[in-house]
Amino acid sequence: MSSSDSAENGPPQDGAPPPADLADLVRSDRATDDDFRSAFAAIDRHETPDEAAGELINAIARSPLATERLPELSRSLRETRSPGRAILLIRALRRHGGLPGIVPDLIRISEGSEASDWDPERQAWAVAVNTLAQHAGATGDTVLLERLGALAEDPGLTDDDVAWVRKCLAKAEPGAGR
Questions:
Q1: Rounded to whole angstroms, how far apart are CA atoms 3 and 71?
Q2: CB hemisphere CA count around 61 (13 angstroms)
Q3: Could you tell me the pTM of the whole model?
């Protein structure tokens, strides 16, 4: 059994190559639509270990076709219940100009209690808040800045959470050094 067939790599599905092999394919310029479909299916499968899914997300982000895959990356972000996957997906989308399309998803993660089920340490929440603040600062979106300001007043947040929101907001203010 090769290392790419190991249990840590997650089980291949429907005859698709193991995630490590898929990662090599999607990083290349010879990847087909079927290769990408298989990669996203593996990312979205809960049985796929986070490490293997992360390798696939990073491979797609480095693919010459990454910008063509923004809709699938966005869909995976909406469907994930893994903080690690959410963080990598947010970063990949941000890197390739997909941020405007995921603002509603970032707001859902930052404001919603639903994320507490799958993000108990609030890792994805922190990345979502920071990304929203950066986006609001870069675009001058005052409504989004006000929304984040209201989030800092949420009585359900811990003192550390409030401090994080305020720190992100301070960096988003006009003239703030980034």
A1: 31
A2: 21
A3: 0.86
Residue 178's identity, in one-letter code, is: R
Structure tokens at 167: 């720190």
Mean pLDDT to the nearest integer, 70-82: 94
SS3 of 14, please?
coil
Sequence letter at residue 122: R
Of all residues in the chain, the percent with pLDDT exceeding 90 is 76
Backbone angles phi, psi at 175, to 5 degrees: 85, -5
CB burial string 72-94: b at 16+ within 10 A, e below: bbbebbeebebbbbbbbbbebbb
Eight-state DSSP code of residue 102: H
Q: Are 129 and 165 within 8 A, CB to CB?
A: yes
1-42 per-position pLDDT tens digit: 333 333 344 444 557 788 999 999 999 988 999 999 999 999
* 109-114: Cβ within 8 A, 24+ apart: 110/148, 110/151, 111/147, 111/151, 113/156
Q: Which residues have C-beta within 8 Å of that of residue 85, sequence separation ≥ 6?
A: 43, 50, 53, 54, 57, 76
